[in-house]
Fold these 2 entries.
Entry 1:
Amino acid sequence: MTNDLSLRNLTKRFGDFVAVDNINLDVPTGSFFSILGPSGCGKTTLLRMVAGFEAPTSGTIAIRGNDMANVLPNKRPVNLVFQHLALFPMMTVAENIAFGLNRRGVKGQEAHKRTEAILERVGLPDFGAKRIQQLSGGQKQRVAIARCLVLEPSVLLLDEPLGALDLKLREQMKVELKKLQAKVGTTFIYITHDQSEALVMSDRVAVMNRGAFEQVGTPQELYGNPATPFVARFVGDNNRWAGSVTECSGDAVVLQTDEGYTFRARAMHDCAAGRRVNLFLRPEAMLVEPADTKGMNVFTVTLRAILFDGANSRLLTVTEQGHELLVRLPQNRVIENLEAGRQLTVGWNPDSGICFAAGADDVFVHDAEGAA
Ligand code: ATP
């Protein structure tokens, strides 16, 4: 397997502040790779270093095995798509796309041929003569990408390119971008703070926090086996409990929550008896009125409200101790008399709850995230 991008010990400081902290990464050729993290975690700084707009404080960047240390931005085999697409509004689609080619000395028939070919590939044949103002948001997006792809970069860098689109279009464009990347085969490096974008489109995702990568993995790995509490919280919704370990054997742990529940769960770190832990449980892992509760953690909650969101219903429930718990119920799971005020038995499998040793910066006692 070859790598289009390799970062080694890449660090960027602004004065005393470490914006990118000793990052190591290999991105395989032809993959869709996302860097996911909250605002200010260093994503853009990382991308700007790869593009050559920012010099690393230390460490190296190699593209297709070539060290980029002394390569100017316009000589790097990368292109950058911004959130604000920076298309030239007064030019036609074809002129926008040919602009970069012309600057590289590709003109006339050859430029025309390549422009037509890339428009075809991004699904906009016959759009060459249109003006930018005549296009929809999604079409503009594709022109911006075509303008970069026509230059045949080894790596396409995308800096939150869907951020300015409305929700519906963003949903469509996620699928389109994924299909487009699969079709053209160019390596995409996509930065976003939106976990749903990263999960839907990417082959692999790096979750970034305070300048460093907390975990790099497939979307399934990040969601199912988060390596740190930060990843568990940032990728997907959770119910969380604080508690103390009472027994452990391998990664099987019994804990007593601060509310007094005894739960069995899976430990992600060494979990000695007596250790303080935080338990994370996905809302869809909670089964409502399960037919068979054998081996499950079972308790009773009261239904407060039902939030319908198309494919699922989210049940806002409250425990006997008055703590909120979020339950996600697929639409095909019909439960009779599901109305506010009703008592429900909920159960969850010990394998689906994961425990992390409590850290110094944990501020929560118990809550349901993503309930709003
Ligand atoms: P966002 O999603 O909000 O764009 P980000 O993850 O892309 O955030 P960066 O723009 O990379 O974050 O910024 C990372 C940190 O580095 C921030 O705290 C920012 O204030 C700081 N920073 C970025 N550029 C500079 C600079 N030129 N001088 C000083 N500090 C900077």
Entry 2:
Amino acid sequence: MLTVDLALEQLLAAARPLTDSLTVPLTAARGQVLAHAVTSSIDVPAFDNSAMDGYALHVTDFAAAPLAEFALTQRIAAGDVGAPLAPGEAARIFTGAPLPPGANAIAMQEDCTVEAGAVRVSGPLREGQHIRRSGEDVAQGTVVLPAGTRLRATELGLAAAIGVAELAVLRPLRVALLSTGNELVEPGDALTPGKIYNSNRYMLRALLEDMGCVVTDYGIVADELELTTRLLGEAAAGNDVVISTGGVSVGEEDHVRAALQTHEWLALWKIAMKPGKPFAFGRIGDADFIGLPGNPVSSFATFTLLVRPFLLARLGVSESLPHLWLPAGFSRPKPIPRREFLRVRIEHGHAVPYANQSSGVLTSVVWADAFAVVPEHSTLEEGDPVRIIQLALLER
Ligand code: AMP
Ligand code: MG
């Protein structure tokens, strides 16, 4: 058996990064991967401005006058530009409005009273207070987004903040998806004896699309050698990656192995993980081939832990899985040779497992917030620290 770490290492080493890029408007860039670094040509903020609604003034004037009265001479709203302040003067100012020359602090409006054209300030006042400095967020010339950044909501906001309207992104990965198994029928069709609904197709397609992949869905592929061979070849011709589920064990009805082993290279791994032992990796022509186990929880786990990092590597993205350590709300008295990924919920700061951890039980994944990782050959007592992989964060 291959350890999870070694399997991942081999996958990442074989991932050939895409280089084709295209330029898209910000509104079309969501979920894509940045092809080139983005450098800011401006300071953000571009000018010193007020962080509060209040009065702009000079603090030395305040220190000199115990009564702290200022002549109110102007009003500066966001988007306006103020005139210089003379000593003893104050300007009415609003959040985001530029600081007028001659001012070095903002008095909050809650600390001020205005009477007959004069502002009276109470409360302490220190130089620089409630001022947002030019360039404090982004200094001109700084790389704000390195190449390989996945563009999520906040990255798009930052690109907009520096005035960038278009971004160079990698073209999306084209992924073909095949669901193998004579037992499969599609939701919406009648469930006849011996059949099950094809759940992997919808789960994997959504996982792939969440990552920004363009999916060509081949639907159900019957367990027949000739058909499997033909469809795998077809899928490989038009895609970067071909992913199938089922049929990668060594049973007589597992034709994926037979279909590929004749003229393509294919590694059939037994990965020391639970769920998700059988896993195939290879190439069909110029496309990568990944064969996932048929059990839905196994295919979810192998996708999350191995396929997703591999696809991201093909996009030049290296992201570690979001994890933390929490006390186990369970025990594992008997060690097993496989690394276990228990479906758990985080309750009162503890990792609590779903009652049925079988690899076919998809309700466990729906219920869970996270995987709790029990290392291979290890025991665990309740309260021991256990590594938690936060599944919800992966969807960001
Ligand atoms: P296999 O890897 O083909 O031996 O399949 C392992 C188990 O997963 C069997 O119980 C299959 O019926 C089930 N399975 C395979 N493909 C799917 C699928 N697309 N959706 C749901 N279950 C599946
Ligand atoms: Mg099968």
